[in-house]
Design brief:
The structure holds 2 protein chains of 2 kinds. Chain A is an all-alpha fold. Chain A has one domain: Cytochrome C Oxidase, Chain A. Chain A has 15 helices and 6 strands. In chain A, the strands form 3 sheets. In chain A, strands 1-2 form a two-stranded antiparallel sheet. In chain A, strands 3-4 form a two-stranded antiparallel sheet. In chain A, strands 5-6 form a two-stranded antiparallel ribbon. Chain A starts with 14 loop residues before the first helix and ends in an 11-residue tail after the last strand. By secondary structure, chain B is α+β, with helices and mostly antiparallel strands. Chain B is 40% helix and 21% strand. Chain B contains 6 helices and 10 strands, in the order αααββααββββββββα. A 5-stranded mixed β-sheet of chain B has the order 3-2-1-5-8. A 5-stranded mixed β-sheet of chain B has the order 4-10-9-6-7, covered by helices on one side. In chain B, β1 and β2 form a beta hairpin. Classes of the chains: A mainly alpha, B alpha+beta. At the A-B interface, α3, β3, α7, α9 and α10 of A face α1, α2, α3, β7 and β9 of B.
Chain lengths: 576, 268
């Protein structure tokens, strides 16, 4: 155990230092959270426009007018990029990780508060640069969130591939820098700042998930940053890393000797771990919430940690499964396929352990629990389409069809979002000192669960039938015509699901000011954030340093006076 | 609340599974030699994943209802897990997932590890924003030289591919906008792209392969039924991606020979 150093910065006075350029990890966590909240509504609005355009291609929309094919592809690109970077990476790690990692391990702040502030403001700058791409000549890029070269490398390849694409790459590069700073901070904090008695094996699974996510981020974002810089050079100073000899519309591009596959290797070396960066914190939150509201210790704590570690490790060896149809060697496809199937094993372990946690529990159906149960359901549904896509022979019909967005939306999109919702409902009382409205939360939950299934499960059917991704209209290919009714159903489901998110938004802001006051430990939970005041003071524990005597999930301990033993309570006989 | 959750989770599971089993939307009818093996592997995977899907979702719904905490209920079971169970399900899933992969691998090997047969019909397929062009080598059996600086898409045909008129081998090359091939004979496709990545996707042939600028990718498939089959582009290639389609005509050997002879005669 490393003795923690006292933290020098004292509570700031004045609005700017307290709420804007704050060094307090809790304020920075909230800044990340609200940035992600605005981003998720932007991203969702874009997806709604896409769905509407797909079934009514000629519709004249307010403000936008008629959506042209290139506009549709800009929506595709910006929806994917904003959701992956500024929502799924930002909220679970930057938001909740920042707020609760130090408190859950008993630290007064992150290891490097100034770096933490820089990391947020760099992310904010990246977000502004990304949004700016909408407003330049030619609009936002049309190359998709994966930005495959040469499409992303040649200004002449289409509208949006001018300044819009440069802004897009710059934004991602800035985001990489911010994430690297954040990752360093999380790793150091976890290793060096734990309170007395908080051994690694007593950390809540949320802390393990943020820690492993930070390691993935440290190893992955550097690669994307390099790739982004090379792409900017190809675009602007005449290098040819990703562009071979070729023409666009009969005009020589002036490049030669580059490799389009090099971009894909670099991108997916980041891109696949990114999937786990998005979902691991959700796994941590689901574990925390399932244990708390089942009133049972988590089933197989160590197995859960080892499963997350192996997901993290294997996650770096499977990137080639995105490239089975790319022209890469078919022999390496075989290797990537085996590794990908192997990653299904720790994922299955986690699912079994969540079910084992519910088994013989005494379940309380508060809103965080509803979303954690939804998380497990979505994780199973989205996970089981993985073994189809992991087999190169089945990728022949399925790759780049709607089956793929169906798969990843369920697992890294909606399941991860359910993790964020579970975390929001779970920690809202601690963050804002008030309770959210349970009735509204339940309505929000059922609309969202049924709605997202109604939008994304049919994507698998469409993919089977051969509907390619990223088509702005389904009118050109005859075999797609019979799929229009199903697409129409999905658009209506999407409209309803998006509308239901307004219930959440209302509940969030209304409860912030009008909700009933929360006690220090409203869920009767065990981890350190519930031992301190609500909301926590500037240094988290008001000058004391917590001493940890118990594991993180000691619920229903026989003989204990209450059905939960807090981590700071005197050691129980059963503690391991 | 436990019962509501059970009903919702079970109903979602039943509805999702129904449309797969009823094959309301399914793989398009296959017309190539690879269809049987690929579709069979798909069904095997589908049955295994389907059983796990239904079992896991039903268990989730059941547990949530069965272990709902009523005020009268006693304390939850105090258990930190079960190592034997962990070992059992880890081993079982490892065998299942890796085994499934090994069973499917020969299909991939058959499609991609070996080169096309010597007697295959050779067709060069070139993708460019936003059209597919097809080139046959002509009577000399050789594809002539094509040069990027000669490419002129607005002129179409040979000019779009940049065929070099000074090369005798390219003089007899036949360039078409429709891909015609004989049935029951292997087709070797040589995939190229001029500008950005495209993907040659023929759902009925169970065939898909990216066409990458700078690479000539050799692939093969064997059509087993005559008919017209739509070709799509499956890799985002720009604003016209959705309308970059083509047609594959599979005809009898006689019909193909006549068609190709007529095209070659036009070149004289």
């Amino acid at each position: 155990m490393v003795a923690q150093e006292s933290h020098a910065h004292s509570a700031p006075q004045g609005f700017i230092r307290k709420y804007v350029f704050s060094l307090d990890h809790k304020v920075i966590g909230l800044q990340y959270y609200f940035l992600a909240l605005t981003a998720v509504f932007v991203g969702m609005a874009l997806s709604l426009l896409m769905r509407i355009h797909l079934i009514w291609p000629m519709a004249i929309l307010p403000l936008l007018g008629e959506i042209k094919p290139e506009t549709y592809l800009s929506l595709v690109t910006m929806h994917g990029t904003i959701m992956v970077f500024f929502v799924l990476t930002t909220a679970p790690q930057g938001g909740f990780g920042n707020y609760f990692l130090p408190i859950q391990i008993g630290a007064p702040d992150m290891a490097f508060p100034v770096l933490n502030m820089l990391s947020f403001w760099t992310t904010f700058l990246a977000y502004l640069v990304m949004l700016a791409a909408f407003f330049v000549v030619g609009g936002a890029p049309l190359h998709g969130w994966t930005g495959y070269a040469p499409l992303s490398a040649l200004q002449s390849a289409g509208p949006g591939e001018g300044l819009g694409a440069d802004l897009w790459i710059t934004s991602i590069a800035l985001f990489c820098v911010a994430s690297l700073m954040g990752a360093l901070n999380f790793i150091t904090t976890t290793l060096d700042m734990r309170a007395r008695g908080m051994s690694m094996w007593r950390m809540p699974l949320t802390c393990w998930s943020w820690f492993i996510t930070a390691i993935l981020g440290l190893l992955a974002f550097g690669v994307l940053l390099s790739a982004g810089i090379l792409l900017l050079m190809d675009r602007n100073i005449g290098t040819s890393f990703f562009v071979p000899l070729g023409t666009v519309n009969g005009q020589l591009t002036g490049h030669k000797g580059g490799s389009p596959l090099l971009w894909q290797h670099l991108f997916w070396f980041f891109g696949h771990p990114e999937v786990y960066i998005a979902i691991l914190p959700g796994m941590g939150v689901a574990s925390q919430v399932l244990s708390t509201f089942s009133r049972k210790p988590i089933f197989g704590y160590k197995a859960m940690v080892y499963a997350m570690l192996s997901i993290g490790l294997l996650g770096f060896m499977v990137w080639g499964h995105h490239m089975f149809m790319s022209g890469m060697s078919p022999y390496s496809a075989f290797a990537f396929s085996v590794m990908t199937m192997a990653i299904g094993v720790p994922s299955a372990i986690k699912t079994f352990n969540w079910l084992g946690t519910l088994h013989k529990g005494r379940i309380r159906f508060h809103s965080p629990m509803l979303f954690a149960i939804g998380f497990v359901s979505l994780f199973v549904s989205g996970g089981l389409s993985g073994p189809f896509l992991a087999q190169p022979a089945l990728d022949i019909p399925l790759h780049d069809t709607a089956f793929v967005p169906g798969h990843f939306h369920l697992i890294m999109g909606v399941a991860a979002i359910f993790g964020i919702f579970a975390a929001t409902y779970y920690w809202f009382p601690k963050m804002f000192g008030r309770m959210m409205n349970e009735r509204l939360a339940r309505i929000h939950f059922f609309f969202t669960l049924i709605g997202t299934y109604a939008v994304f499960m049919p994507m698998h059917y469409l993919g089977l039938a051969g509907q390619p991704r990223r088509y702005s209209q389904l009118t050109e290919l005859k075999y797609l015509h019979p799929l229009l009714p199903l697409n129409t159903f999905m658009t209506y489901a999407a409209i309803i699901t998006v509308a239901a998110q307004l219930i959440f938004l209302f509940n969030l802001f209304w409860s912030m000011f009008k909700g009933p006051k929360a006690s220090d430990n409203p869920w009767e939970a065990t981890t350190l954030e519930w031992t301190t005041a609500t909301p926590p003071p500037h240094d988290n524990f008001a000058g004391r340093t917590p001493v940890v005597n118990n594991g993180p999930y000691e619920y229903s301990v026989p003989g204990a006076p209450r059905d939960y033993v807090m981590q700071t309570d005197p050691a129980t006989v059963a503690a391991h | 609340m436990g019962l509501v959750l059970l009903c919702v989770i079970w109903l979602i599971t039943i509805a999702s599974t129904y449309f797969f089993i009823a094959k309301t939307w399914w793989l398009p009818a296959g017309a190539s030699a690879a269809t049987a093996a690929i579709d069979h592997q798909f069904i095997v995977t589908f049955i295994l994943m389907g059983v796990i899907f239904v079992a896991a979702q039903f268990a989730l719904g059941y547990f949530v209802w069965r272990y709902r905490g009523e005020p009268s209920a006693s304390r939850a079971d105090y258990s930190h897990g079960n190592l034997t169970l962990e070992i059992i399900w880890t081993t079982l899933t490892a065998i299942l997932f890796i085994g499934l992969n090994l069973v499917g691998s020969p299909i991939w090997a058959a499609e991609r590890f070996r080169p096309a047969a010597d007697n295959a019909t050779r067709v060069e397929v070139t993708g460019m924003q936003f059209a597919w062009y097809f080139r046959y080598p002509g009577p000399d059996g050789k594809f002539g030289i094509a040069k990027p600086e000669l490419e002129d898409p607005s002129a179409g045909g040979e000019a779009a591919l940049g065929l070099d008129p000074s090369d005798p081998a390219s003089k007899d090359d036949v360039v078409t906008g429709i891909m015609e091939v004989p049935v029951n004979r292997e087709v070797e496709v040589i995939l190229r792209a001029h500008d950005v990545i495209h993907s040659f996707f023929v759902p009925a042939m169970r065939f898909k392969q990216d066409a990458v600028p700078g690479l000539a990718i050799h692939m093969h498939f064997t059509p087993t039924e005559t008919g017209d089959f739509e070709i799509a582009c499956a890799e985002l290639c720009g604003l016209g991606h959705y309308k970059m389609h083509g047609m594959l005509k599979v005809v009898s050997q006689d019909e193909f020979d006549k068609w190709l002879a007529a095209r070659e005669a036009e070149k004289q």
